[in-house]
Specification:
heterodimer; A: about 725 residues; mainly beta; 44 strands; globular; B: about 160 residues; about 10% helix; elongated
Chain lengths: ~725, ~160
């Protein structure tokens, strides 16, 4: 058993709490929850479907007709998932299973989840459930002989405590399903299993029968009905919504709409409400934050698509309402129509910038840039006013005013046959495209690695100092770095990234060190840190360190969770899902750092053991004192150097080679590209047959060993 | 930082623990229960396979990118500001895709030099030098990776 040296106290930095925001919405929700706790039901049987996702429960409203979805709440007053969602027609509350409490919860129209005291439930979590339409009973189900189908009377006689009754055990009723929903009128419930088999379930009797195979497979984590008896199922891996007419002799699923994808999904809907198809999605909206006037409710910039003749770039698509940043219509409908504007140069204070605008036909362009970053396109921020464009490519010049504020902001471009168009409001034709832009000081060079839309991949085996299975996916992070420099001095860096996979059970943190860069280089308030587009209050800078070390997270599992039916996050077959966590760090140096003493990208990204969680081979959790770095990088001052040489580790102070085995194999790799990492338990040499030759030849041959064309498809995790 | 002294007995235990974890088996990883198929007759030559069998050359850091040298030298002192971009190509292969750039920088006096880090799978880079009045391309240089190229250079003159 490894005896770690007395672990130095964990660096005293304020902990980053998951997904707490300072946005106005969160403040309003907090105010609502602070009032005396008379819960408010939803006012009527709403047409919108409810969808709950993410490791820390987030509630969305989904228009099943168009697939359009909006965020209702990121703060349901719980720190964990909610599943087995059901809308209760009898009392107009939402009910679900709260993982934090391991009990049912009731959610009111303030989106506050309150745990319920229910007797006789087994000590396990449920992710399948719904409320019956003909009686006020919440059914939850879990397969397995020790579990089964349970009925919870939500309104027991005489004020008796709520009690779960097991209708049937989970071996007699054995279904591989991830949600079920009750039909509006026939008292039965329905579910589609992984193989596409449609099951009709009599919850009263505890029996089921298979009706048909609906022709689609996958994990259908959210299931709904509408008042006409149509069933809707949403697939976790891609968010596709399918509709099934269960009255047909052999029901099949037809593709219906694009919805949000998540590996944690559960849906509920008041089955007695009709589906409302509003605008028919013939309108194009922008996607800048709503303070700029983006959504329909804010009279946001919108263009009637009409015949679709006038557009920017190569294509145009509509949506029934705006997807507001950090959502984006291009993610929702999988079609990138934000392609008409190219920024050739940066936006430097006091200088001209060049922009290429691609127009489908002769038309007029109006454009704004929020120079003062106040969240609004003010009149003096109009940079293009009714400019006539030719069909095809147009080179335009925009001047960045000296009074502009440096940093990240938004720009809006509107094309139409109408010359005089403002930043908000509807227009009869054309397209609007919103872009995030960066304003810099004058004379700044921007250097991005690997490229301004590319990703580097950092892949770790986390079992150090023991060798693992070399599937290189225990922790996988995408990273992009952007350096701003002038006159041989680095003024600032931006790190953008996403947490792409966690293929192990250990809890690990992730950080990036800037080797040799002292924390004294950073003036106060010099770091802007965002998770999933939301500004974080706590500083990511590790204190009690001489060098700049930016901690992205103490624990990757705070932000991601395994998919339903999966053990890990995005490493197993059938466990595809959208990435759950993205981050951005912007660091400004006070006086600039000489470029020749600045480290090379991707700097020193490393993982560390989350404090308080055990690891095999350690008496006590090693916590922050255990780190794993890329080949060529060494540990930080927080590392426990007495761990070197233990297990399979053959680190050497003399050669400066750390985190290597006897044969020189590392525990981490950096690939300067977006990399399709191996599936769980698959060795990197099976997934990438050229890897061994690349190493043997010391990089002289097979330099592109890692590209998708050179992978063995059966051994890699591939997700769009 | 203090280091705890490891007793001899503990060292022996460590050595044994290290050996039992060899072979890259799942038991050593501790992440998941080991595979159910037990090996009834563990052969003495339990040679490692896959990545565990690779011997890495000394000092090899698994690089997947290389430095490229970029230079602008218009041969005469240009009084006006120009702008250099080095980007990956657009789908047409002839023009840059300005959403995929590696470097963007103003150039003064018609002269600039720098190193940039280029991923191994970037087979083509397009460097363009723009003027502002009028806003148009002054020079374009296309760099293609070839098997013989050991050093990457992009020179605009």
């Amino acid at each position: 058993m490894i005896q770690p040296a007395n672990t130095p106290p964990a660096p005293l930095r304020a902990r980053i709490t998951a997904v707490k925001t300072t946005s106005i919405m969160a403040a309003l929700l907090a105010i609502g929850a602070a009032q005396p706790a008379a819960a408010t039901p939803f006012t009527a049987c709403p047409s919108e479907a409810f969808l709950i996702q993410r490791t820390v429960a987030t509630l969305y409203g989904v228009n099943l007709a168009t697939g359009y979805y909006r965020e209702l709440s990121v703060d349901l007053r719980t720190s964990d998932k909610i599943n087995a969602l059901g809308f209760n027609f009898h009392d107009n509350y939402l009910y679900g299973w709260g993982y934090e409490y391991r009990s049912p919860v009731r959610i009111d129209s303030n989106y506050e989840a309150v745990p319920l005291d229910v007797e006789n439930l087994p000590n396990v979590d449920f992710y399948v459930g719904d409320i019956a339409v003909d009686r006020n009973v919440y059914y939850v189900y879990r397969s397995g002989a020790s579990y089964g189908l349970y009925a919870i009377d939500l309104d027991p006689q005489g004020g008796a405590p709520m009690r779960a009754v097991r209708v049937v055990d989970g071996e007699s009723l054995k279904l591989s399903i991830f949600d079920l929903a009750f039909h509006p009128t026939n008292t039965l419930a329905y579910a589609v299993d992984r193989n596409g088999t449609l099951h009709e379930i009599d919850a009263n009797a505890g029996t089921s029968r298979a009706l048909s195979n609906v022709g689609v497979t996958g994990t259908f984590g959210a299931t709904y009905f509408d008042v006409d008896g149509y069933m809707y199922i949403s697939r976790n891996s891609d968010g596709y919504v399918f509709r099934i007419d269960i009255d047909q002799p052999s029901p099949i699923a037809e593709f219906y709409a694009y919805g949000p994808s998540s590996n944690n999904n559960d849906g509920a809907r008041c089955a007695l409400a009709p589906i409302v198809d509003e605008t028919g999605a013939a309108i194009d909206f922008g996607d800048a934050p709503d303070s700029y006037g983006t959504s329909l409710a804010q009279n946001g910039a919108r263009h009637d698509i009409g015949e679709g003749r006038i557009y920017l770039g190569q294509s145009l698509d509509g949506e029934s309402d705006a997807y507001i940043y950090p959502l984006a219509d291009d993610d929702a409908d999988r079609s990138d129509d934000e392609d008409g504007i190219q920024f050739v140069t940066g936006l430097e204070l006091g200088e001209d910038a060049i922009v290429i605008v691609d127009a489908s036909a002769p038309s007029y362009l109006n454009a704004w840039v929020d120079w003062n970053r106040n969240g609004v396109f003010d009149p003096e921020e109009q940079v293009v006013a009714g400019q006539q464009l030719a069909a095809g490519s147009n080179n335009l010049t925009i001047r960045t005013p000296l009074w502009a504020r440096t940093g990240s902001s938004w720009a809006r471009f509107r094309l139409s046959t109408t010359a005089g168009v403002g930043p908000v409001g509807g227009v009869a034709d054309g397209e609007v495209e919103d872009y995030q832009v960066n304003v810099t000081a004058n004379g700044v060079t921007e250097s991005v690695f690997p490229s301004s839309s590319g990703w580097s991949t950092l892949a770790y085996e986390d079992n150090w100092p023991f060798q693992g299975d070399y599937d290189m996916n225990d922790l996988v992070v995408h990273l992009r770095t952007r350096e701003l420099s002038r006159d041989g001095s680095v003024l600032g860096v931006e790190l953008a990234g996403e947490l792409v996979a966690v293929g192990g059970v250990y809890h690990n943190g992730f950080a990036v060190r800037l080797p040799g860069i002292s924390t004294s280089r950073l003036p106060n308030a010099a770091i802007e840190y965002r998770i999933n587009g939301r500004l974080q209050n706590d500083s990511p800078l590790e204190s009690q360190q001489g060098e700049v070390i930016l901690v992205v997270t103490d624990d990757a599992w705070t932000f991601v969770s395994p998919g339903e039916g999966c053990n890990y996050y995005r490493t197993e077959p059938g466990c595809e899902a959208d990435v759950q966590m993205s981050f951005e760090l912007r660091v400004s140096f006070g006086l600039g750092v000489p470029a020749d003493s600045f480290p090379a990208a991707p700097y020193d990204p490393f993982m560390f053991a989350t404090p308080g969680y055990g690891r095999q081979g350690f008496d006590t959790p090693p916590g922050r004192s255990l780190e794993i770095h890329l080949p060529g990088a060494g540990p930080t001052d927080a590392f426990d150097f007495s761990l070197l040489g233990k297990g399979d580790d053959r680190s050497s102070h003399d050669t400066g080679e750390y985190f290597r085995t006897e044969t020189g194999m590392p525990w981490a790799l950096h690939i300067a590209s977006e990399w399709a990492y191996p599936l769980e338990f698959k060795d990197i040499t099976d997934a990438y047959p050229d890897f061994a030759s690349f190493v043997d030849s010391a990089g002289e041959t097979k330099r592109s060993w890692y590209v998708l064309d050179n992978a063995e498809p059966a051994f890699i995790f591939y997700s769009e | 930082m203090t280091y705890k002294t490891i007793s001899l007995a503990a060292v022996l235990i460590l050595v044994l623990a290290g050996c039992s974890g060899g072979g890259g088996s799942d038991e050593a990883s501790g992440n998941v229960p080991p595979p159910t198929a037990a090996n009834p007759d563990p052969a003495p030559d339990n040679a490692p396979t896959g990545a565990a069998a690779i011997t890495v050359p000394d000092g090899f850091d698994f690089p997947t990118s290389q430095l490229a040298y970029v230079e602008v030298d218009l041969g005469r002192d240009i009084p006006y500001r120009t702008y250099l971009t080095v980007c990956l190509p657009a789908l047409d292969g002839a023009n840059p895709d300005y959403s995929t750039c590696l470097t963007r920088t103003p150039v003064f006096g018609g002269s600039y030099m720098s190193d940039i880090e280029v991923s191994n799978d970037a087979d083509t880079l397009i460097a363009t030098l723009w003027t502002f009045e009028p806003a148009e391309v002054l020079r374009t240089v296309v760099w293609n990776r070839s098997a013989e190229t050991t050093a990457a250079e992009i020179i605009i003159n």
